[in-house]
Automatic annotation (TrEMBL):
UniProt entry keywords in alphabetical sequence: Methyltransferase, S-adenosyl-L-methionine, Transferase
SUPFAM superfamilies listed in its UniProt record: S-adenosyl-L-methionine-dependent methyltransferases (SSF53335)
NCBIfam families with a match to the protein in the record: mthyl_TIGR00027
Documented EC number(s): 2.1.1.-
Designated name of the protein: S-adenosyl-L-methionine-dependent methyltransferase
Purpose: Exhibits S-adenosyl-L-methionine-dependent methyltransferase activity.
EC class name: transferase
MF terms (GO), sorted A to Z: methyltransferase activity
Keyword S-adenosyl-L-methionine: yes
Organism this protein belongs to: Mycobacterium rhizamassiliense
InterPro entries registered for this protein in UniProt: Ppm1/Ppm2/Tcmp (IPR007213), SAM-dependent_MTases_sf (IPR029063), SAM_mthyl_Trfase_ML2640-like (IPR011610)
Pfam families: LCM
Amino acid sequence: MPRTDDDSWDITQSVGATALGVAAARAAETESENPLISDPFARVFLDAVGEGMWTVYADPALKAKLIESEPDVQNRLQLMVDFMATRTAFFDEFFLGAADAGVRQVVILASGLDSRSWRLPWPDGTVVYELDQPKVLDFKGTTLREHGASPKARLVNIAIDLRQDWPKALQEAGFDPSAPSAWSAEGLVRYLPAEAQDLLFERIVSLSAPGSWLASNVPGEGFNDPEKVRRQREDNQRIRATAAKLIDTEITDFDELWYPEKRTPVDSWLRERGWAVLSLSFPELMARYNRTIPPGAEDAMPPTQFVSARAKA
């Protein structure tokens, strides 16, 4: 179903379902022979919801059947797992670096099934604000607590759509804009129209005291190239149709959820506002963690930049 201005979702629908895809890739990486990351809660979420498109990443038997039907999908599936593994490692290291620098105020925008509040070794006194749709936050908190888990920082959930006045809700929940903070917008920006992307970062900067940190993965150059988008969608539609037959259920068309629009380059935009910025392409991020893009899968992922920035003190 295409996006609308006031659409909403729970964890198995629309944008919510993408969080399960990320969890499935994290589970596959965590359970691999030489994992880059460890997310013990990813499998917990998958077990709680049952089958969906996410199952093809985390169920070896189903993955084997899909590869048998679509042999060229093997490298694409591995690339998705590698993408999520390196992305997770990037954001984990970002937050731990901010914590080591003394930042004790963390904001995770569109937190989805990000379990960092529950699994990272946060220093005493850290407050983590998680913002997302009410049903998504409820599913995550209920599932983890039923599993016996507890947050490792003081967790403040803010159930709100980011198209609403989330800065007001954040401050009403106790966020202090005069203190340094660490922000993440992970797996979020491509699901926002270009105008909403600009507003998001304007709001973050306006709430960031000197010494604040920010990390995001954002559309890279060529993200909305019409020919590349067409090829990606054709491949995804074929794979989705095959997977739907294997699991006998309707599968969300993720290609309908994002906006292939011309966008403001986030890295240069932040530099113009006095932030110190580091930007890596996806191939550069893969190389950072000693991973390579599998043959034939070079165009399987939209061009992506990984941006980390600090507001100068």
